[in-house]
Amino acid sequence: MTQQAAPPDEQDATPAGADNKQPVSEELRWEIPGDRRHDAGHAITLRTMARRLPQLIRRAMGMAWQVDRNSVIALLVCQVVSGVLEALGLLAVTGTITAIFASGHITERLHQAAPSLILLASAAGVRAVLGIAIGGLSTRLSPRISREAELRLLDAATHAELAAYDHPGFNDRWDAADRGVEVSQDMLNQSQNIIAAAASLIAAAAVLTSVHPVLLPLLVLAALPQAIAGVRGARLTYLASLETMKDRRLLGNMRWHLVDKQNADQIRSGTMADFLLGRYRAAGARVDAATDRATWASAKMSLIGSLAGGLAAGAVWAALLFLISTGRVSVASAGTATFALRSVAAGLHGIIGYGAIIFRTGMYLDDWSDFLDEAGGHRIARGDTVPTGPSVVRAEDLTYGYPYADRPALDGITLEVRRGEVLALVGENGSGKTTLSKLLAALYLPSGGSITWDGADTRTLDAHAAWARVAVVPQDYAKWPLTARDNITLGQPVTVHGSTADDAVNSAAYASGADEVVASLRSGLDTLLAREWWGGQELSGGQWQRVALARAFHRDAGLLVLDEPTAALDPRAEHRIFTGLRELAADRAVVLVTHRLTNVTVADKIAVLDQGRLVQYGTFAQLRDAPGLFHDLWVLQNDREPIAVPNQDDHRPQDPVLF
Ligand SMILES: Nc1ncnc2c1ncn2[C@@H]1O[C@H](COP(=O)(O)OP(=O)(O)OP(=O)(O)O)[C@@H](O)[C@H]1O
């Protein structure tokens, strides 16, 4: 989802030529930069569809092949046999009719017709069994294809650089790709339907040609208007689905915001429900209006197609009658031709109808494969050096710019933090502290300059090995719907010789104050921490923060990054963290981001950032007394009138304070 500003020409809300331009308010809009689907939608023609269908079928079969090749072989064999049986069945119709209309006693005629009848019945019976087998195989393959598509999508997303999420459109494309995963399971069935329609069309066409060569081209010509109308209808439907896509996504997004537990209290306390539901209704109405327009236009198209198709079918039947009356075709062959004509017409209809559907599905699958490529563009491709430590983390003339940002978030930063040290990052909102901490932790790579770990540029490090050496407590830490133990170990229990995995968990919990939280849980470390899921137990904000801290302390990491680690903690818990921090820093390099300047007294060095630049760098004692930003912030934070506290010795009841 991209929250995009309207383009400059749309921002001008005043009439042309007026001087004081008022920007219109920006609204959440789903945009996919460089979205090529609209052009692709307009390009849906009979010819493009004829070209595309084989590719799409190959693609569906290819996906199925990767999942279970035996089933694909069985599926194709069933389809081919079914097509051959259809042709045999149609030919048997001629034998049956010829025998029945021949001269002689009825018993004799029936006797003559028996082999054809048996063939007809057996072909129909075996085709029915094959149909069941095809259905079963498709049902087996489809969910597996979808899961494979999903796994590839998840793999691509989780193996992309973190910075990919900052690229405009990455999340939109993820969303579109996810839709591709949803429809991928339909792809096989749709291909099957087309193959089945094509098989029966080929079989019937062969039989029809054997009756009289003129019938087939005549039928194809007759089917053309309906085919064109069918494709146009498909184009209208696809374009309508594109037109409404943004609003449908908006609806999905709003639905999530409306019911998500995190927002539930604010929707109520802010009395926002009506406002949001109003927006929801408006978006829904836009979708309905566009769908109605498309349905009407498509119905008109179908009507024209059906009229043309009816006239054309009449011409074919007239031709058949002409052939019979002039003795060019026998009555028995005409009977076969009747069945074959119906099969050909049904086959053509099936190919066009299913073709339009699979064409649409193919568009969504393009989104999926585009995402795999795009994530591939952001795929982690750093060096392969496996770091130890790190003992010294150093930024050298570091610059970092978010994609499409007007100015760099960090500019020319040089500083370092060593094992055993605490480096505090201080500055006003938006000054670049969090960004810098992510670069030091090798989550982002520099745009300019360098970050080195023990002299090795983070660009040259194996990313996963590097992240195994860092522990991060971000401002918005994850609240995993897992047990307390898993929430601390993150599924990576550690045992130091002689100790159990829980010893490490317990000591991390003790260091963060999460031990008190665990002690209060109904099943201790085994308690599921997610009230809204599976009947788990919920924690308060501060309790969650203690768990998040325990998770970082538990990691065997050389670099510990704490971004506002005590924002939700009570004074006792906060005191515990900061008094224990030096001990934690003994064998780690610690980077601490905080606005509470009294807490930075524990730091060995303080880096003060202002609009992405390092404006001061020194110890607490040096910075507090020197003129500069740190001194200013310190004075502001301590500029509070002490609130009069009643004399502690005076135990007389106070007058109640009336508000
Ligand atoms: N994902 C992002 N994409 C684009 N710009 C970003 C992104 N994250 C942060 N920024 C911008 O980078 C600048 C620095 O942000 P950062 O989060 O590092 O600041 P901060 O000092 O940690 O702020 P705070 O004290 O509010 O947490 C800000 O101008 C912000 O708007």
From TrEMBL:
Its main location: membrane. The keyword Flavoprotein does not apply. SUPFAM superfamilies: ABC transporter transmembrane region (SSF90123), P-loop containing nucleoside triphosphate hydrolases (SSF52540). Residues 73-360 form the ABC transmembrane type-1 domain. Residues 1-24 are annotated as: Disordered. Keywords: ATP-binding, Membrane, Nucleotide-binding, Transmembrane, Transmembrane helix. This is ABC transporter ATP-binding protein. It comes from Streptomyces polygonati.
